[in-house]
Design goal:
The protein has a domain at about 30-115. About 85% of the residues lie in helices and about 0% in strands. It contains six helices and no strands. Helix 2 packs antiparallel against helix 4 (about 55-70), helix 2 packs parallel to helix 5 and helix 4 (about 55-70) packs antiparallel against helix 5. The radius of gyration is 32 Å and the shape is rod-shaped. The termini are far apart.
Length: about 130
């Protein structure tokens, strides 16, 4: 074998090996982040978040749909959009939780105010005749 033939053979072997690696390294199907984003959107949808943080949840759904659309042609962008969708869904859940907590706190404050008023009414009432005997 001549030196030039040996070089060609090595180059061909190297190229074949690289092509095989690239073929094996290319994952099939949509990125796993799309499934994770779907789980986040589903979780937010099932806990009442849709009523309390509709805009963020709608944004998450839109990004998830776009990620699905572009996944076959642009996996990296699809992955990023799916991550953004998951983050938007989590933000929606956090905002809904904050609103629920705010409402609960307001209810507790109202109850405390009612109790204070009731206690003030008792202490301001004149003593009953039975109590003074």
């Amino acid at each position: 074998m001549t030196p030039s033939s040996a070089r060609r053979l090595r180059a061909a072997s190297l190229i074949s090996g690289l092509l095989a690696l690239v073929a094996c390294a290319t994952p099939e199907g949509p990125p796993a982040s799309i499934a994770a984003a779907q789980n986040a959107v589903d979780a937010a949808s099932s806990d009442g978040t849709a009523q309390l943080a509709a805009l963020d949840l709608a944004r998450a759904r839109s990004k998830l749909e776009r990620a699905r659309q572009i996944a076959p042609t642009d996996r990296l962008r699809a992955h990023r959009l799916a991550e953004e969708a998951a983050a938007d869904a989590e933000l929606a859940r956090a905002q809904a939780t904050r609103q629920r907590s705010q409402r609960a706190m307001e209810e507790v404050q109202q109850s405390l105010q009612t109790l204070r008023e009731a206690l003030q009414g008792r202490s301001a009432a004149p003593a009953s005749p039975a109590a003074s005997r």
